Amino acid sequence: TPAEVEGTAAKQLSTPLAAVDSCVTGTRAAFATGRTRSMQWRRDQLRGILRLLQERAPEIHAAMAADLGKNDVDSHLTEVLSVKSEVKTTLKNLTSWTRDRSTSVPFIVGSARAHVQRQPLGTVLIIGPWNYPFHLLLMPLIGALAAGNSVVLKPSELAPTVSATVAKLIPEYLDTEAVQVIEGGVEETTRLLEHRFDHIFYTGNGTVASIVMTAAAKHLTPVTLELGGKSPVWIDASADLTATAEALVWGKFSNCGQTCVAPDYLLTTPELAEPLAREIARITRRAFGSDPSRAENYGRVINERHAERLAGLLDSGRAVIGGETDTAARYIAPTVLLEVDPDSAIMQDEIFGPILPILTVADHQAAIDFINARPKPLALYAFTEHPEVREDFLRQTSSGGITFNTVMTQLAVSTLPFGGVGASGMGRYHGEYSVETFSHERGVLRKLPGFDPTRLAKAPISWGMRKIL
Ligand code: NAD
């Protein structure tokens, strides 16, 4: 069966359990040498990633095509260029992001100097998912190395070709002791999690996140959890319908909808639902032709199990476009559903596939209430030209991030923190936020000769002093 084939692929790729232990010990030993703290080492590693991206992009594209049916343009944009831009920005700002920050000292402390020191945490574990299997492993790696840590990387076994490619390429470009890759699934990850790490950075679903956090708790290891959930979209009549449809088609159907910040479902008014659905259908046809199964720019669902899960959600509404499936070929057509009940199957969990349900509510306030009645989203989107509507979303909702009049491009803004809140995760990264995540900010205080308030404490309390106190 395909499940057995998948299992075999994962099995062949996995690192033997004893090697898991020696890999952790080796990575720790590399940190203990002190070399990862030097700015030169950090720069060399970051430049190593840059060279890897420059020289080996074709291998990354081939792996992406094998695991996710991604075309080269898509892979290059989302897996290679995005990571390259993060390395370049990090290299450019490395000195300022890692330097000591002096801070003021209150009068009561007397003469003294204070500063905040950003220190590496030690050895960190990064566990990646299958949906952007290269990007989501390398982006946190950049921050971890920039902060001076040694790293164990665990790619997802569900993208086996990418996992094997990462395991092959990383040792060719980076410090082979300080950065090591463990391949495998549940068994290997469980073994890894028995070890003490100084930080665990996990991207994936909430159920496994709680397993990771439980294991981390045993060692009091801090965690960053980059999770998902249903990311809603509000659209009102003031939005440009074509531009909105174009953004949604791109956001929902690239990578076959398997994107953590993909628009999950739409909320709009009853009058707008039908014209919006028709416009999305028109743009979808323009993007993928009348038979998307033959379109070069349309991907596949990761495996048959997920394809079957998605096929089972199609009767949650009336398909305006799409609805065709070939689960053996992992194909689900780009689909837009109208007349979707809030209690239907498709509204229970994150869809994580190319099906876009449209629900209707009276107005933007009803949309806000609908969103607030559910777990906090990773991304929240609103297409509107009304400043007061924007203001209401900003004041009344909570989400990992909020984006107006476009989708997903917030990820490219490295000056914005990226992460969830509540059920969509904890912690954040990208740009300087990554360096913060993988550093300990140590408070450093140095007393200088001169005024010393502790002397006052030792002195007998005078009448004047009593009055002040
Ligand atoms: P996945 O199945 O690849 O799992 C992620 C990782 O967890 C893998 O490395 C896997 O080996 C490991 N794992 C699985 N079971 C485990 C267990 N029992 N113990 C220890 N480790 C285990 O990926 P997934 O979870 O299906 O990823 C999809 C989810 O991730 C979606 O919910 C999506 O929204 C979310 N996601 C979030 C982000 C983000 O940046 N916030 C990005 C991508 C995906």
| End-to-end separation | 79 Å
Low-confidence stretches: 1-11
Assembly category = single chain
Summarize model confidence as the mean pLDDT.
94
Gyration radius over CA = 25 Å
**Biggest β-sheet strands, sense, barrel:** 7 strands, mixed
Separate helix tally: 16
Q: Could you say which overall geometry the principal axes of the C-alpha atoms support?
A: globular
Helix content: 40-55%
Q: Which strand order spans the largest sheet, edge to edge or round the barrel?
A: 10-13-14-9-8-15-16
Strand percentage: 15-25%
Task: Quickly give the structural class.
Answer: alpha/beta
User: What ligands can be seen in this structure?
Assistant: nicotinamide-adenine-dinucleotide
The tally of beta strands, per DSSP, is 18
Structure description:
The structure is a single chain. This protein is of the alpha/beta class and 469 residues long. The chain is 45% helix and 17% strand. It has 16 helices and 18 strands. It has helices at 2-13, 17-32, 39-68, 72-98, 135-146, 160-173, 186-194, 206-218, 241-253, 270-288, 304-311, 364-372, 387-396, 432-437, 453-458, 463-468, and strands spanning 101-103, 112-120, 123-127, 150-154, 179-181, 199-203, 223-226, 232-235, 265-268, 318-321, 325-326, 331-332, 335-338, 355-360, 379-383, 401-404, 425-426, 439-447. The strands form 4 sheets. It has a 7-stranded mixed beta sheet, with helices on both faces. A 6-stranded mixed beta sheet has the order 5-4-3-6-7-17, with helices on both faces. Strands 1-2-18 form a 3-stranded antiparallel beta sheet. α2 (17-32) packs across α7, α3 (39-68) packs antiparallel against α4 and α9 (241-253) packs across α10. The longest helix has 30 residues, at 39-68. The protein is globular, with a radius of gyration of 25 Å. The chain starts with a helix and ends with a helix. The model is unreliable at 1-11 (pLDDT under 50). It binds nicotinamide-adenine-dinucleotide. Nicotinamide-adenine-dinucleotide binds next to α7 and α8.
